[in-house]
């Protein structure tokens, strides 16, 4: 679901024909007095997710539903999926997926079994694809880390925007440098659905002395629903077109006093347009060429905003 020919062509065209960050209208003004009420809405409850159990139930349902469907018993398939969907809603999965699932369970307009089976299958697939984000720990579990913020000379001031938006895709993302704010809108139109910013280092970075990346004072839109990705590229990625490493992160509890720590060891799977490159090496912190931030479907659909006080390396 993540990749398609269209998106690949779009991205290639984008990279070839434009090198400037796309302009997007300002949905949020981080300095406007009205923004904190919608944006800094503190949440104290964690999502009590049991994602692995949901994934197990889905796998079981598909093992029954798919053969039934292929044998022509579409009603059985739809029934198994519907029953499983109801069972999953009691587990507490991430809220965006939960509301999608509840809506489809109650959607009596999809009255025929075939449409119902496919609608539920699509939601099941997005649950299976969902990765739990790394989140800041509310307590200082690692008191001994040293934070080294990125310096002005290290990180170029203006990132490159990489969107799905040249050949019909309409997702947008912009960066406000002085406020460390990434905002925009992802759209599913034309099979798109992501917006990202990339900082290319003027010089390859040797980060082997550090443990990972930190982000301090992280805040973002729809805390319980939106997740974002941090992107890293090393020398090996430069040899494989559109390859990079990504880690999913979020701040559902809007923890402010502890930084989010993202160890380099989490960047263990090289990918290309959302597909894992099997047998590829792990991220090599000795030769880092690029860092980025991404908002992408299915967790971010529509307007989004992410901001932080500071980021850098932790040692
Ligand atoms: C947070 O959001 C809820 C509903 O989403 C709203 O009722 C509440 O007033 C908000 N709180 C603040 C501090 O804006
Ligand atoms: C999730 O499901 C597993 C397996 O059914 C169970 O052992 C575990 O306690 C559940 N965790 C939560 C947080 O509900
Ligand atoms: C759809 O049908 C179910 C029973 O199959 C019922 O419980 C539900 O209320 C119906 N929803 C709507 C919106 O009519
Ligand atoms: C990177 O730095 C480490 C020491 O921190 C050093 O041992 C290594 O040789 C350096 N690698 C490169 C490619 O410069």
Automatic annotation (TrEMBL):
GO biological process: NADH dehydrogenase complex assembly
Cleavable signal peptide: 1-26
Boundaries of every NADH:ubiquinone oxidoreductase intermediate-associated protein domain copy: 160-307
The keyword Signal appears for this protein: yes
Source domain of life: Eukaryota
InterPro entries according to UniProt: Galactose-bd-like_sf, NADH-UbQ_OxRdtase-assoc_prot30, NDUFAF1
Protein name: CIA30-like protein
Pfam families: CIA30
Keywords from the UniProt entry: Signal
Gene Ontology MF: a single term: unfolded protein binding
Family assignment from sequence similarity: Belongs to the CIA30 family.
């Amino acid at each position: 679901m993540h990749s398609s020919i269209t998106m690949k062509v779009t991205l290639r065209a984008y990279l070839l024909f434009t090198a400037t960050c796309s302009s997007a209208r300002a949905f949020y003004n981080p300095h406007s007095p009205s923004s904190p009420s919608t944006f800094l809405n503190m949440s104290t409850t964690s999502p009590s997710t049991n994602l692995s159990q949901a994934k197990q139930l889905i796998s079981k349902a598909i093992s029954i539903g798919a053969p039934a469907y292929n044998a022509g018993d579409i009603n059985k398939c739809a029934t198994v999926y519907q029953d499983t969907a109801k069972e999953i809603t009691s587990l507490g999965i991430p809220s965006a997926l939960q509301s999608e699932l509840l809506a489809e369970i109650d959607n009596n307009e999809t009255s025929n079994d075939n449409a119902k089976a496919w609608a539920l299958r699509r939601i099941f697939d997005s649950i299976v694809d969902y990765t739990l984000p790394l989140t800041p720990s509310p307590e200082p579990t690692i008191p001994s880390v040293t934070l080294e913020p990125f310096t002005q000379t290290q990180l170029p001031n203006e990132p490159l925007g990489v969107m799905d938006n040249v050949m019909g895709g309409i997702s947008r993302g912009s960066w406000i440098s002085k406020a460390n704010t990434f905002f925009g809108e992802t759209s599913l139109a034309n099979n798109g659905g992501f917006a990202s910013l990339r900082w290319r280092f003027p010089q390859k970075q040797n980060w082997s002395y550090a443990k990972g990346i930190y982000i301090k004072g992280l805040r973002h839109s729809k805390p319980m629903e939106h997740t974002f990705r941090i992107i890293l590229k090393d020398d090996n990625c430069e040899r494989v077109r559109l390859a990079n490493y990504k880690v999913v992160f979020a701040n559902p509890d809007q923890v402010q006093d502890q930084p989010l720590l993202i160890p380099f060891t989490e960047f263990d799977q090289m990918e290309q347009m959302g597909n894992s490159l099997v047998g590829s090496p792990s991220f090599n912190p000795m030769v880092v060429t690029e860092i980025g931030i991404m908002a992408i479907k299915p967790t971010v659909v529509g307007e989004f905003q992410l901001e932080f006080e500071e980021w850098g390396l932790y040692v």
